[in-house]
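Holo prediction. Input below; ligand is zinc ion.
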Amino acid sequence: MSQPPNDGKATQQQTKAHNDGLVLSIIYEAEEISRAAIARRTGLSRTSVGEAVAELLGRGLVEEVGRGRSRGGKPPILLRVNVDARHLIGIDLSGEELRGAVYDLRGEMRHTVSLPRDGRRGAQALELTYVLLDRLVTAAEAPLLGLGIGTPGLIDVQRGSQVHWAVNLDWLDIPLRDLLERRYRLPVHVVNDSQAAAMGEYFFGSGHHSGNLVVIKSEEGLGAGIVLEGRLLHGDHFGAGEIGHLVFGDDGRVCRCGNRGCLETIASGAAIVQRSRAAALADADSALRAAAMGDLALDMEAVRRAYVAGEEAVRGVVHDAARGLGLAIATLVGTLNARDIVISGPVTRLGDTFLDAIRQQVHARSLAPLARDTCVEFSSLASDITALGAAAMLLHQELGIWPLRLPRHAD
Ligand SMILES: [Zn+2]
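Structure of the complex:
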């Protein structure tokens, strides 16, 4: 993530870009605010604020919206973000469907497209990604700020957002950013899907007021995105948050990574459905048996119904998933002491009983004072959390907007 420039080495241009981003972040968060109030909140001089605002007005990103209340003297002119000055495209390549949307600058969805992947991998998955983006680019009704891509795999953000390894798409060393920049002639930012989900939750989720947040995304795969002290954590080899491949039992199922007993084989949305299917096939009385035999759809919704109905085989599967997630979360709590832990993905459909089971595991396996202050919740953002977070990358990388609850932005 970008930082305020070091005073000694900062070029004038860096300082200016930083000031513009800071002022825009203040306006973004305040909704409507005067130049004087921006100066008070940023500590920047009125001249610097005036220059930044002039720049933002000139680019159309900000607009004047009449006058506020007077503090004595002439009432000040208020500024706000022009949400349609640019639009954002965010896409999510992690699920069985490739999904994406056009958003305004506040993350309001303006247009959405989903395409079933139907098992496409490799070059075919890339072609389908182009189809998805073609449709979204065509549908956009405002100039585009860029393309935000949330993809499974290890993403080398330093070397041009190269996708090192995305096992379910069968992508190895794909220069995704270069390919997309060349095709669309727009800025492109590629980020791991779980890290994108963390960005979505941090920007647009409910009430994360500390600078620390962990978002666990359980869908086809399982991973975590971590915001630590106000920064998205990538790790030395871009694998921060790859908790899906922590091995919890050497005798477990073979994971697609090649190891046995990975958390992903127990607690990903796909694993819960697969294990429920196996459990139903082994149980002659199971209500899911017809679905498991292939006569009806066996998806997370069917698993949810069986779970709520108290079906024994499915309860065991869901209990194992809750135990695995609880153990992983307790490890994260002990390591990071992040207060807000948010779970997203189809597993959230399993409801409060499942959430409570996870919380019990976290409490049982964490230091008591840490567990007491930990908040494990389901995300309030629906299935577009990753696409939304990929779009939020553009707000941050292209405009310097970042939620202001960070210590460095304190008034
Ligand atoms: Zn694995």
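The pocket of zinc ion is lined by residues 245, 255, 257, 259, 262, 264 (CB under 6 Å). That is the main takeaway for now.
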